[in-house]
């Protein structure tokens, strides 16, 4: 027996005082209504309704059950209405995870505009370069920096960024310029802790052929802005996305060390657990971010 359905059917009968009227309200047959009520009475081991050819009335137990169910079913109806409204109108708390540098430089300026547009949304933004488990840690959405690796999440591409190996002009003046990736072996490099390739730096030559070079680190950090500052200070060579070092390249504070070689681009993604039953607040945020990064991104202009 479907007990939830049986309770719903019994409540409809009790509220309308008729099996036929309850059947009409539930868009089913009187026979089905009778069956559900009979099964519920058998399950509970008590009579809920007094039946006669002219009249239908609640027993004492039936009246007590109906009173209890009425409040519960009202709560369910209200909850369904709230859930439906949240899928149409952006509202409620929206938890977002994003990388530290990208979050500060390129996402923070966007939040006020979103909140002006959708004032019923409460943003909760957590910045971390660690790849979080969205479902396990309770996030609605994550902005990810990715080279296209496998993921169990649904993701929408927001923008792209170039990766460039760079150093300060002062460092290159003191230690010499580089001609090929093999020259990196004689230089001090600045490492990024979350780089999955660690000591192996990957390039493509002018013909598009991959070149892998092992490097020696003199400095490690888990934050891109810290690596940038170290490079600006002349500590060594690093590679970073242009969303962090784009302005430095334009101003000449940092220069490419291997201009004839390129590194793989990276994608900026909006990732969320599933496309099914996507709430309005997540859907509107993903659309808002995608629109904000339309065209050539500011860091590569």
UniProtKB/TrEMBL annotation:
InterPro entries: LysR-type_TF_proteobact-type, LysR_HTH_N, LysR_subst-bd, WH-like_DNA-bd_sf, WH_DNA-bd_sf
Organism: Lacibacterium aquatile
Family: Belongs to the LysR transcriptional regulatory family.
Protein name: LysR substrate-binding domain-containing protein
Pfam families per the UniProt record, alphabetical: HTH_1, LysR_substrate
Domain HTH lysR-type: from-to ranges: 1-59
Record key words, sorted: DNA-binding, Transcription, Transcription regulation
Lineage: Bacteria, Pseudomonadati, Pseudomonadota, Alphaproteobacteria, Rhodospirillales
């Amino acid at each position: 027996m479907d007990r939830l359905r049986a309770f719903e059917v019994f409540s409809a009968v009790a509220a309308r005082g008729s099996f036929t009227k309850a059947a009409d309200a539930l868009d089913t047959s009187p026979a089905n209504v009778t069956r559900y009520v009979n099964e519920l009475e058998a399950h509970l081991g008590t009579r809920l309704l007094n039946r006669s050819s002219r009249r239908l009335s609640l027993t004492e137990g039936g009246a007590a059950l109906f009173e209890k169910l009425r409040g519960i079913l009202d709560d369910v109806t209200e909850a369904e209405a709230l859930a439906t409204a949240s899928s149409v109108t952006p509202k409620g708390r929206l938890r977002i995870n994003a990388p530290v540098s990208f979050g500060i430089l390129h996402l923070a300026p966007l939040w006020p505009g979103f909140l002006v547009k959708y004032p019923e949304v409460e943003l909760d933004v957590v910045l971390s370069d660690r790849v979080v488990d969205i479902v396990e840690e309770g996030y609605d959405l994550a902005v990810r920096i990715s080279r296209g690796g496998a993921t169990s999440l649904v993701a929408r591409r927001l923008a792209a960024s170039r990766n460039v190996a760079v150093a300060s002009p002062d460092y290159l003046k003191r230690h010499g310029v580089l001609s090929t990736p093999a020259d990196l072996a004689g230089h001090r490099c600045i490492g990024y802790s979350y780089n999955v390739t660690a000591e192996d730096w990957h390039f493509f030559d002018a013909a598009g052929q991959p070149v892998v070079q092992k490097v020696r680190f003199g400095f490690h950090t888990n934050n891109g802005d810290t690596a940038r500052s170290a490079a600006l200070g002349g500590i060594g060579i690093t590679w970073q996305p242009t969303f962090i070092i784009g302005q430095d390249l334009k101003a000449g504070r940092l220069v490419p060390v291997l201009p004839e070689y390129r590194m793989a681009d990276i994608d900026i993604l909006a990732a969320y657990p599933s496309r099914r039953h996507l709430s309005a607040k997540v859907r509107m945020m993903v659309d808002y971010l995608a629109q904000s990064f339309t065209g050539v991104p500011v860091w590569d202009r």
